[in-house]
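Lecture 7 notes: from sequence to structure.

We start with a single chain of 648 residues. Read the sequence below before looking at the structure.
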Amino acid sequence: MKVLPVEIEIRSRNLFQAVWPKMSDHFRGVRTMIRNTSLRGGPAATVYTGCKSAKLKLSPHIFSIIFLAVFVGLAADVGEARQHVTVAGGGSHGLGIRVDGMVVAWGNDIYGQCKIPAGLGGVVEVAAGSSHSLALKSDGTVVAWGYNPSGQCNVPGDLSGVVAVAAGGAYSVALKSDGTVRAWGYDYYGESTVPAGLNGVIAISAKRNHSLALKSDGTVVAWGDNDYGQCTVPTDVSGVVAVAAGGAHSLALKSDGTVRAWGYNPWGQCNVPGDLNGVVAVAAGEDHSIALKSDGTVRAWGHNYHGESTVPQGLNNVVAVTAGFSHSLALKSDGTVVAWGHNYWGQCNLRPAGTLAGGWGHSLALKPNGAVVAWGDNTYGQCNVPSTALSGVVAVSAGGRHSLALKSDGTVKAWGSHDEGQCSIPVGLNGAVAVAAGGYHSLALKSDGTVVVWGDNTRGQRNVPAGLSDVIAVAAGAYHSLALKSDLTVVAWGWNNQGQITVPTGLWRVVAAAAGAFHSLVLYFDGYNASAWGYNDDGQCSVPASFSGALAVAAGTYHSLALKSDGTVTAWGGDYEGLCTFPAGLSDVTAVSSGLYHSLAVKSDGTVVAWGEDSDGKIDVPASLNLGIRFRVPKKGISPGVLLLLLN
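Now the structure, written as tokens:
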């Protein structure tokens, strides 16, 4: 291919370092250099391809040449110039890649979709389905976890060379570097049956029961459920640079920055605003649609019962958008994420479990970089966070006089009081996905659904019921333990002096459990009911009649806490030392924890608030502590189709 030397100025937040050098390999005898410049006060890139100082007027044909150079010239290595998805919204959970490369998850974890596999690393892209999760590694392999009744997590053994992934309702899709597509899982509507001969694909999208594939020629191929015409691509749709599959509708972004939509439309999800232009990315939820504009602002339309189409006022500097079932997320240029819409499962809270923990007299917090911060009573060294061998921490738990940390490799670290062996990690313990610290004993939940306990056993707290399996969460009280199973029932063992292990008959549909010193507390599936049993002299087991809309629960000695979906906190029981008296203005809370005589909350901006008994400094939160998460902002490349759009 012979190309005349030209100078092209690219107006974008991305500098295409990965794209243009690869393109230049296909321009014979042309030397390419990229230098950063400034254009009207914003970041830009000027690409020089050997021309003289005078700028040449671009022929319209240059766009076709560049388009072909990217897609044809890079056919053998589609992934190198790809802008990967680093934040993804699922049915009721979310996934993200932190700036340090660690994958984190939040929201509904009933099926283990938020339990990151031990040792998972080298991840470049994530995708979230209804109840399962996918991670694409830098070596082109895929890891899956979560709900698996249809085999959506059974990654084909011969799958390799993957450059992008997408997760549907109960199936998974992978795009390979050769432009072909693989799919597996639920196939009732043919969503896992890739059309024969499909190739030349550069992007994929999947949602409930249908999939979309964007080809290098700008056309779209769809397959799966077509009850509402979501797979009937309009004949006049061409020049497409990005696609997004919704619950039963489809979106296509064209090279001129406009959006086309088709399929199910009772909520207006296909009614693209007439004044919408300059779009650079699209996303689709179950019944709503989102568009990211070139100026970093966001537009949304369609179903809005949960506020999923109500974009937060003043939202700007957005670089990527994604949508869950009925919630939306926007990744900003500074690595923060703004979420809005349905928050029933905490899918808008972006706060992984285990980031905050209250012990008997001390507190723990997990920073976004995996570092552990401790404050309060340190009589037994429970605040002496090990300076060595403690990195990559993904969860913490505070016990009576000891502390636990779960690492990303599935191992556990402990420090503090060791009088009952509570810090003696069992030899060979690995594959842990959660930890809980009791008064003088410790628990670890393994990835196979079994529980390991060590430490004090004077009250039978180490006597795990025979055959206990399929556990998805654990909690520890002073001398008793709780296990939440995948069938949403609860099992308890240990001391029963106050009836704390006498689980109410018929108790089920539980989604969260907390253990106080001598009482137990659970949250039901609907979020509008909770039950508590055990010590109740101060009313800590008397759940308020007005209880509703809760996301999580926590329990202390004399009181109980619940985090509500609107970011507020409710408490009941004894109000000694202000246990149930919240700091003025407490709102926008994303996680709560409780010690014996104090409570902790972290807000959406990462600040930590504590209240209750003030002895030992356990509520004296370090002034500089902030748990705000920063996610990886895609910088390696950008969709070649969007490159074409930006050049126009």
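The CA atoms of residues 567 and 588 lie 4 Å apart. Keep this in mind for problem set 3.
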